[in-house]
Amino acid sequence: MQVTDRRMKARYHLPGLFEFYELYRRFLPLYREHREYFYTWCEIGSIYGAPADCLWGGGRAGYGDGDPGEVMALMREYGISARLTFSNSLLGREHLADRRCNALCALLEENAGAGTENGVIVHSDLLLAYLRQKYPRLCFISSTTKVLTDFRDFRRELGRPEFRYVVPDFRLNKSWTELAELCPEEKDKVEFLCNEGCFFGCTDRKACYEAVSRKNLGLDGPEFRCRAPHAAEGYVFSRAMENPGFIGTGEITGKYLPMHFSNFKIEGRSLGSALVLEFLLYYLVRPECRLKVREKIYLDNMLDLL
């Protein structure tokens, strides 16, 4: 696997800011102290997530229990940007005064430092306008929950100056002709969702996200039931790799980086830490070093699994 331009770096945006605090507390020291374990062509751009029961939350039902102060201290220590996933699509003006969500935004703004760009992932334009006025030091990311599957809609979203990054629907990941036509400024704003586990032919994605938004707001509504093949089995990484929208490390180094795309989002904040570790190993760690990282993080040679 070769990257011809050594200046080109893939910046990964990782899941579980609050959900996987304990995992990152063990992983980030390895990332700093054993760079020989990791691919030279990638770096951690940010870690995103939300604590449990956040009114503004969306995308996935949050269950993060990391202490916000400890989480931000960890991000400061390693110089990594923090992002709040506040992509609820059903917010009204009455929700904007929520004390907890405002306190989290204020905490991120206070902890923005040199080299870090803390931000909020948003769906609602109402929330975006409010946050831009109240927390001007934060950056804003257009959420994939908008389900931008038409490239023309996606390009219009890229043209909005209020967004630092835009995450398209994963079904645009391989729109090579249209992607190649983007100008450098547009390419800098694209953040691809790499490992989506949803069915490529799903037509219920918006309804799914709206159901999560209702749940976070405590609103009544129909329970969403996924009709996709294999839905009952949950997320399976090996099956996600077969998804036509999947972006693997070979494509990142062989296709996306040469096309001057550099931002890649890894999903998984609603999954378990063991599976998220597999994502980190696959996307960041050299194959011959993956067992070393596993051993240092959680393997116990006295543990019997069966």
Features:
12 helices; 12% strand; 306 residues; 8 strands; alpha/beta
Average pLDDT, all residues: 88
Q: Write down the overall geometry.
A: globular
Q: State the helicity in percent bands.
A: 25-40%
Compute the number of strand runs.
8
Helix/strand layout:
Layout: E1 10-15, H1 21-33, E2 42-49, H2 68-78, E3 81-86, H3 99-110, E4 119-122, H4 125-134, E5 139-142, H5 151-158, E6 165-166, H6 176-180, H7 184-189, E7 191-193, H8 205-217, H9 237-240, H10 249-256, E8 263-265, H11 273-284, H12 290-297
Parallel strand pairs: 1-2, 1-8, 2-3, 3-4, 4-5, 5-6, 7-8
Task: Provide a descriptive summary of the structure in words.
The chain is an alpha/beta fold and 306 residues long. It is built from 12 helices and 8 strands. The protein has helices spanning 21-33, 68-78, 99-110, 125-134, 151-158, 176-180, 184-189, 205-217, 237-240, 249-256, 273-284, 290-297; strands at residues 10-15, 42-49, 81-86, 119-122, 139-142, 165-166, 191-193, 263-265. The chain has an 8-stranded parallel beta sheet with strand order 6-5-4-3-2-1-8-7, with helices on one face.
